[in-house]
Structure formats: C-alpha cells, structure tokens
C-alpha cells in the first residue's frame, strides 16, 4: 500500500520535522553566560564547614545573595582577566530548621541575572536517581 501526499502536505511535514530537530538542538546547547547549578542543598554550619563551588561560564560575574546571616559567598577571580566565573559557598548559620535563600550571578557585560536557590537543611543520606530517554526518530516512522 502506497500513500500519496500532496506536495503541500509533504512540505508541511518536513517543516514540522525541521522545527522539532531545531528545538531539540537548542535545548541541548546553552549559549551565553550561565551557571552549572540552579539548586544547591547545603548542610547547616558545622565544626568542619562544607564548602561548595558554584561554577559559572561564558561570563564575568558579580555575586550577590539575600541572607548574609545564612551564607558566605567568596568569589574566585581569573588572574588573567580579573573576572569571577565561580564562587565558594558555605552555610554559616546553625541548624534551626530548613532554610531557603538565593545567590545571584550577574554578568557584568550583559546584565543578565541568574538565580541559584540554596537550601540549608540536615540530611543523612543522598540517593541519586538518573533517568535518561533518548529516541531517534526516522522519517520512515512518519511515512511507513
């Protein structure tokens, strides 16, 4: 059995497939200033504080944060360009229940502001779940 498509329908289908491929490509490539993590979980202040390195790329960042009584944020500077692309973050507040705050990375060139939510809470274990789906679609699935 053969299907006949009007030439307009074929062009429309090809355009649809092209848009799907373009959107899929755009989702996997990040351009411009960005930071690696937008959510971070930290333990409360302890005898030996846990420090987390918040990494940025493709930008020169100025760092700010909401609660100076909860977090310490120490920018790290690139020696050659005097730009900050990362910051060391640690909790300085003792435990008094779960807390939430934010760190802001502002790119000095574009003015783009990127927010990283920081949660401070006790935790006793970490489980990592990874689920990835990758499907290749071929035109034969559309045409039979």
Provide a descriptive summary of the structure in words.
It comes from Kalanchoe fedtschenkoi (Lavender scallops). The protein has 144 residues and is an alpha+beta fold. The chain has a domain at 34-120: Cadherins (Immunoglobulin-like, Sandwich). It has helices at 7-28, 139-143; strands at residues 34-35, 39-42, 52-57, 61-65, 71-78, 83-91, 99-107, 113-120. Strands 1-3-6-5 form a four-stranded antiparallel β-sheet, with no helix packed on it. The chain has a four-stranded mixed β-sheet with strand order 2-8-7-4, with no helix packed on it. It is globular. Residues 1-28 have low confidence and may be disordered.
Keywords, separated by commas or semicolons:
single chain; 144 residues; alpha+beta; Immunoglobulin-like; four-stranded antiparallel sheet; four-stranded mixed sheet; 2 helices; 8 strands; 35% strand; globular; disordered N terminus; Ig_NUP210_1st; NUP210 Ig-like domain-containing protein
Query: CATH homologous superfamily of the domain at 34-120 - what is it?
Result: Cadherins
Output the helix-strand order: HEEEEEEEEH
The best one-word shape is globular
Amount of beta strand:
35-45%
Domain NUP210 Ig-like: 38-121
Protein name: NUP210 Ig-like domain-containing protein
Keywords: Signal
Pfam family, one: Ig_NUP210_1st
